[in-house]
Amino acid sequence: MVKTDNQSQSGDEALAITALSFLASDAERLGRFLSVTGLGPETLRQAAARPGFLAAVLDYLASDETLLLAFAANAGLAPEAVADAHRRLVGGADRGGNA
Question: Above 60 in pLDDT, residue 38?
Answer without folding.
Answer: yes
